[in-house]
Structures
1.
Amino acid sequence: MTASVTLSGLRIEYGHHVAIDGLDLSIREGEFVVLLGPSGCGKSTLLNAIAGLEPVAGGRIEIGGADMTRALPKDRGIGMVFQSYALYPHMSVERNLSFALASAGRPKREIAQRVADVAGMLQLTPYLKRKPAALSGGQRQRVAIGRALVREAAVFLFDEPLSNLDAKLRNDLRVEIKKLHQRIASTMIYVTHDQVEAMTLGDRIAVMKGGEIQQFDTPEEIYHRPANRFVAEFMGAPMMNFLEGRIEGRSFLWQGQRLDLSGYGFRTAPQDGPAVLGLRPEHVHTTGPADGGTALAAQITLVEPMGPETVLWAETGGETLRIRAAGDIHAEPGQAAALAFDMPRAALFDAATGERL
Amino acid sequence: MTRSALLQRIALYAFLLTAAAIFGLPLYVMVATSLKSMPELRETGIFALPRALDPSAWRMAWTGACTGLTCGGISPGFWNSVKIVVPSVGLTVLAGALNGYAMTFWKPPLSGLLLGLMVLGAFLPHQIFLYPLVQWLSAIGIYQTLPAIIVIHCIFGIPLMTLLFRGYYSGLPRQLFLAAQIDGAGFWRIFLCIMLPLAAPVTVVAVILQSTAIWNDFLLGLVFAGRENLPMTVQLNNIVNTVTGERDYTVDMAATVLTALVPLAIFLLSGRWFVRGITAGAVKG
Ligand SMILES: Nc1ncnc2c1ncn2[C@@H]1O[C@H](COP(=O)(O)OP(=O)(O)OP(=O)(O)O)[C@@H](O)[C@H]1O
Ligand SMILES: [Mg+2]
């Protein structure tokens, strides 16, 4: 089962505080959408509104084409997984899984069948008689996912489901969730502030800030063509480098250097004036220009070996740049380096508004 | 063990033994006296051990002592108290649990004001309300009946019970409540299947607090229960104060111990639960 989700002009208030004001979002059937943003930006608020757990002050929520703005949570065809699992502590895994179906008054045989199916799918069968307290964190989260699954929901809502788990489990369950999506093909809306989860899971990512969606696009677009400086800063670790300079004609002037912009895809015809150049660490090369372009003399100040890659910090003209280099590079602090920028893949932002140029 | 640690230990035990004596001695005197006869009591004084275990004072206190004009012992009072305590405790605890649940999770309009009133109701001295309540109960025609005293205990008990449960419920993760809503449970199903079972520890505390308080009540029972339903505490007072001929201290003591037996038993049997319930924090997992 699957359904589209359309939010239009959504407004949510907490007393006098407006958490979300006039938000539009259109999610296709079967799509995996990630809501990403810093703490307090309104991700949970938005998810709770879709679930019907938060009253809506204005706007419209459609699920599967039907107006659900005022519908009860149980009538929306949704399943939800919470950050703290929110399992019923006094009930066995089996009863946790069957609670929703029992609430809906389904026949006993059907309930038993559904619970057995879901438990099998999530490898929970050996634990059906246990209480949540006797489960590991990963098992608990699987029960929480199972509780959403038994309802055969068309839309699944996840609120930071993996953030209470350790790194290894997080990776395992992330893969499980992705496989689950491929198998059941329901629409999924997934809240996180972890970029790796966002990039790996999302068909599309909605980056949020202060209750507004900054950019809603595929992971590739978000990473490679961020719509504004906030998105560029938020996505990617180590962080993008930002160089403040000027546009003049087809060049970017920075620290007396004239960087060539002829390969850059401007959205509108560029105007001369102050601007910010954004460069991903992997778009700064230490090997010098391959094609005889501009080389920048720099000094390496810090080396962080990560295994598959090495992050270098290099100083040039009073600015420190982050550089992603090969894992087997031999670099020492104090060493000189000749830097080259991969200009066609850079991002240019308006100095005042931070919007992409 | 160092010298100062040893001294500390000794001081601690000295304090504990003194405290135990202060609380234990009266109890010992009561029990010992109740097992003596009057001549023996006069002869040996109040601190001596009883020579033989003579249950006649207990029998007298339970079935024969005079409480005012009738001489049926304290047993009718015991049963009256049971008839008052059981429904009152059941109703106040259940209503408190329900109120606390509704106020915590459903946040009805004006719940702030409601909470303020509850606090007022829980902590204002009850005597203030005595006269208006007498008037009101007379007006509706149940003054000095069993229902009257039960209603009164409910009125005075529910605010405190509500606060107790509200405090407990606000410590539970709200996502439990949200998850139950997603699962399609309504107001009553969430209460009965999830919130009430989860509140078991605080329910134990509530039942102990309420049953002890209502069992020990004297004033409200005297004013509202009526002649037929006087609770055990009032009857005990009548026994002790009814003097026909020689005052029999052994019977007085036996009746007192009998009256104290119920709260005592509750504490002894459930003390561990009580502590556990008070210290039980939010439910994890
Ligand atoms: N019950 C509430 N009453 C008042 N304000 C609230 C309430 N819940 C959330 N807010 C406010 O709404 C805004 C969005 O909160 P929300 O919980 O949606 O953030 P979030 O993006 O989920 O953050 P996090 O990543 O920390 O979970 C915040 O500014 C928060 O302070
Ligand atoms: Mg959140």
2.
Amino acid sequence: MTSPPTRAARGRTVLHPLTVNGETKDVPFLPHETLLEVLRERMGLTGTKHGCELGECGACTVLVDGKPVLSCLLLALNAVGTKVETVEGLAEGGKLHPLQQAFVELGAAQCGYCTPGFLMTAKALLADRPRPDRPCLKDALAGNLCRCTGYLKIYEAVELAAERMAREKPPRGA
Amino acid sequence: MKPFSYARPASREEAVRLLSPTARPKGGGYDLLDLAKNGVSTPGTMVSLAAVPEMGKAWTGDHGETYLGGRMTLADLATLPAVRAACPVVADAAAEAATPLVRATATLAGNLLQRPRCTYFRDPFFECRKRGGAACPAMEGDHAEGAILGNRLCCAVHPSNLAAALLAAGAELRILTGVDGKGEPTWRTAAVDPAFFVAPEEDPLREARIGPGELVFDAVVPPCPSSAYVEVNQKASFDWASAAAAVVLEMDGGKVARARVALGAAAPVPLLSEAAAAALAGKAPGAKAAEAAAEAAVAGATPLRDNAHRVQHLRVCVKRAVLLAAGRGR
Ligand SMILES: Cc1cc2nc3c(=O)[nH]c(=O)nc-3n(C[C@H](O)[C@H](O)[C@H](O)COP(=O)(O)OP(=O)(O)OC[C@H]3O[C@@H](n4cnc5c(N)ncnc54)[C@H](O)[C@@H]3O)c2cc1C
Ligand code: FES
Ligand code: FES
């Protein structure tokens, strides 16, 4: 995989290879552009939401090498040479990801603005801890804010998805 | 955001060579980018420390001291068992900061050197002493989250959890100052003590005594197993501290031989409360001594019109931190 550039000059738009949802593309952007701006405005991936821009709401959460990051405060340059995952990459072959399916079934999204961020944070959590208990789940999602649902439905949806995913992929040794 | 250049040096020597008053080192970048977006600071170059080796690790020295790399994340500081065992005050402070999403990226040096969170400071629409203005609008305006100590000129509280913890722990920073003629790095050390922080009376434009061309390589923390950091927040899930206390106890038998009590989110700089430390010296660290320390810590408080609640919050933090520290390292 390409390593991140070591220098980039102010005001110069340069093509950089970005790997998003498994596909590598050369994307033109300036050194001061955030990953959020590049995803939405340069790549047309508007699933990732633009909320507070301050690191407070988590609407802009994407995964960088599997780790949830706030794309509004990350330079796109820092994502070169990494694997970026956004909400657009969750569904496979027209089938919703178990997290998305559970959010739909349990009504864990109302206006939906926070949903992509929650889905990405939850995906990283379940990769790390397939069956988190409620306190662990609440703690992991504490950086994602929702103004509509009151959170309960979101916790229940993540738990339902975790249960289904565990059934599909039993733990090693089981 | 005003355009800037970017550099990603692969060594500490290259990193320090690239720094200048207009080139800022970038840890997580979570504070730098926020300030750049609202136009409060406009660096010419961001020097990313992501590829500088050694700065992302913790290790233990020959005398039990812990070396904490300047770009270790708050998540690592909060969770590494070695850090928790040797200096729980640092682990607590990191764990209490921000959200898991922020902690996964924000760094030790970036947290220590982040700028205040006062709304007036972060909005160039307002005049602010911290941006060279002649007045502090928060004095008459919204200061519910403002300082209750040292607030004569400016009432923006120091935002950093780690600053209070490192102050209580008596940590020392190892700072790279440049490279000599042979290309070897030059160093200085700076104790994280009251003299490291800069109060508004001396210079409102900065909070720490560190030059623009300097790089915090790591923090060396003496072993302090009987230590704790406690904060009080308005919201239960995550919030900036309404008050915080970092306490380190040196025990002799069942009594406190020496204490260091640092107060966070209380003043424009983290404060070491000599009075609280004196209230603990020679005492068994039970509820009575903890309450006396808490009372001593807030004795000089000068709350503003809308933030007297923070005095009580600070009392509570000191008391709880003393009791928690006393229960540890036995
Ligand atoms: C929603 C939210 C809530 C938060 N809550 C809290 C909280 O409760 N408590 C708390 O303490 N913090 C809190 N923070 C701050 C956060 O923890 C980060 O510490 C902070 O954003 C800066 O960390 P950083 O590594 O991103 O620093 P950066 O933005 O990279 O840097 C900050 C400053 O440090 C300088 N710097 C960075 N590394 C070095 C180095 N090695 N040597 C010299 N200078 C250096 C930079 O030049 C810059 O001036 C919060 C942040 C957010 C967004
Ligand atoms: S938009 Fe990034 S945290 Fe709110
Ligand atoms: S569903 Fe509206 S903000 Fe969460």
